[in-house]
Design goal:
The chain contains twelve helices and eleven strands. It is an alpha/beta fold. The protein has a domain at 53-236 and 266-280: Vaccinia Virus protein VP39 (Rossmann fold), CATH 3.40.50.150. Helix 5 links the parallel strand 4 and strand 5.
């Protein structure tokens, strides 16, 4: 085990308050900015153990047969993310950080994007490479040598909250994006309706895998530290509200529409570097 930084990694404040204690783990919140963090947290060695193959086997089915109906259904479930990025970018090179089995990348490839990924699971990486033919690098994003100013789109779907050092992750993202590239990211938000209604049972805490717990404001502030300006955002609809209203027969057809009126489990943002940051980093190269 190791301790989290003594000062908030977002605003530098030292005062904290307990946000929740769950399964013997404690999550605190910065009293000033509201960023949540796990403390104490797994050490680097423990992280490597946590993210061995059992992380995926405990949460997801074994990689699906690419010729199966289940695989096609899984790809359809990723289409909302593809549609989200296509509102800004219709083609180009996509890098998915924390790509898992590569289902999102497969959905992107079907839409004409060139795709590659990064993941820490050897099992998931092997599946993506051998079964889907998707190039995936095995390892933590901060430990890999990635091409500078190369990608049109970098995605981090439920990834940033897992990394011990979000600063390093965003520095890598900034260095790898083309000048007109975009970052698409989503994270669970403990300010959302689902978290507020379920709280102790909310699955977004996901201890000890989630080191950081965001609100929409703290995520925007984090991106701003690296010169990113948010150009598009969306809330996922509330599954709690959808389930509640779906129980009422006369309202069941409208349950999803009603749920969209409430903030849900996660928030998603698309951001790009502002002009000053583009000029500042024009000669930068990220080197490990």
């Amino acid at each position: 085990m190791e301790r989290a930084p003594k000062v908030c990694i977002l605003c530098g404040a030292q005062e904290r308050e307990l946000l929740i204690e769950k399964d013997s783990w404690k999550i605190y919140r910065c009293h000033k900015c509201g960023l949540g963090f796990l403390d104490p947290r797994p050490s680097q060695e423990e992280i490597e153990h946590l993210y061995r193959d059992e992380y995926f086997s405990e949460r997801y089915d074994e990689g699906l047969d690419p010729n199966s109906a289940e695989f096609q259904k899984r790809l359809r479930s990723e289409k909302h993310r593809v549609r989200f990025i296509k509102k800004v970018k219709q083609d180009g090179q996509v890098l998915d950080i924390g790509c898992g089995y590569g289902y999102f990348l497969a959905a992107c490839r079907n839409e004409g994007f060139e795709v590659s990924g990064v993941d820490v699971s050897g099992w998931a990486t092997q599946y993506a490479i051998e079964r889907l033919g998707i190039p995936v690098r095995l390892g933590k994003v901060g430990d890999l040598t990635l091409p500078s100013h190369h990608f049109d789109i970098i995605t981090m779907w439920h990834s940033l909250e897992h990394t011990p050092d979000p600063h390093l992750a965003l520095q890598v993202v900034k260095s790898c994006l083309k000048p007109d590239g975009i970052l698409a990211i989503d994270v669970p938000t403990y300010k959302g309706t689902d978290a507020q209604r379920m709280w102790q049972e909310w699955d977004g805490w996901s201890v000890p895998y989630h080191f950081w717990h965001f609100t929409s404001r703290t995520l925007v502030q984090f991106l701003g530290k690296y010169g990113f300006t948010v150009i598009k955002s969306k809330d996922y609809h509330s599954s709690v509200i959808k389930e509640k209203w779906g129980r009422i027969v006369i309202l069941k057809p409208f349950a999803r529409l009603i749920a969209k009126m409430y903030s849900g489990h996660s928030i998603a943002l698309i951001a790009r570097l502002d002009e000053k940051m583009k000029a500042h980093r024009s000669s930068e190269t990220y080197v490990r």
